[in-house]
Design goal:
The N and C termini lie close together (11 Å). The chain has helices spanning 13-24, 31-41, 44-54, 61-72, 90-102, 117-125, 167-180, 183-190, 202-213; strands at 2-7, 27-29, 81-84, 109-113, 127-130, 138-140, 159-160, 194-197. It has a five-stranded parallel beta sheet, with helices on both faces. It is globular, with a radius of gyration of 18 Å. A hairpin with a 7-residue loop joins β5 (127-130) and β6 (138-140). The chain is α/β, with parallel strands linked by helices. The longest helix is centred in the last third of the chain and has 14 residues, at 167-180. The chain is built from nine helices and eight strands. α1 crosses α9.
Length: 214
């Protein structure tokens, strides 16, 4: 499968991607991962990206596209790939379309995880993360609590609410998503590539995608 996963922070893209990659060996690709890998490997494009990141600047789209192009040609993408959280803007979507055409790669479709805002707020504000940097296990005080409240099951360190997962911080992130990234759903719908999935269960999302691929 060759898919793009769209959806607001907390919509469940990461969980869905992991379930999908287990189905057919496709690889999950996020821009954060490929940028870090390019920097780590010391590629020419990675060195350029590193200079921007060290300066605290956004990595330009053209550079991200170059790194994405290299990543999509790696052997593990032969079985398929899931682009998680990319593209983020319509100009990026247009550039990605040009890149895929150049590489002779055809997308199956684009999945938009349509999850109500109140559900996302509830999911993220009840999330807790292990404070041990070497562990970082994730819990949810409603759906997946630790055995002892406030204590990580795995390493015994305190669990905390991250600064970016307060209701105020999440609301800001969702507002930014609605303004900049949500229009991508309309863009892909117009070119006939969108599958909109209105479900809060990752199993239901995976089934909808599998049915469409069948």
């Amino acid at each position: 499968m060759r898919l793009i996963l769209l959806g607001a922070p907390g919509a469940g893209k990461g969980t869905v991607a992991k379930k999908l990659t287990a189905l057919d060996g496709s690889v999950q690709i996020s821009t954060g991962d490929i940028l870090r890998a390019a920097v780590r490997d010391g590629t020419a494009l990675g060195k350029q990206a590193d200079a921007f990141m060290k300066a605290g600047d956004l990595v330009p789209d053209a550079l991200i596209m170059g790194i994405m192009g290299e990543r999509l040609l790696e052997q593990d993408c032969a079985n398929g790939f899931l682009l998680d959280g990319f593209p983020r803007t319509i100009p990026q979507a247009e550039e990605l379309g040009n890149l895929l055409t150049k590489l002779n790669i055809k997308l199956d479709f684009v999945v938009n995880l349509d999850v109500p805002r109140d559900v996302i707020l509830d999911r993220l504000t009840t999330r807790r993360t292990c404070s041990n940097p070497a562990c970082q296990a994730i819990y949810n005080i409603k759906s997946m609590p630790s055995k002892v409240d406030g204590v990580c099951d795995k390493c015994g360190s305190p669990t905390i609410q991250r600064d970016d997962e307060t209701e105020e911080a999440i609301s800001k992130r969702l507002d930014t998503y609605e303004e900049k990234t949500a229009p991508l759903a309309n863009y892909y719908e117009k070119i006939g590539l969108l599958l909109n999935v209105n479900a809060t269960s990752s199993e239901a999302v995976v089934k909808a995608i599998s049915d469409k691929l069948a």
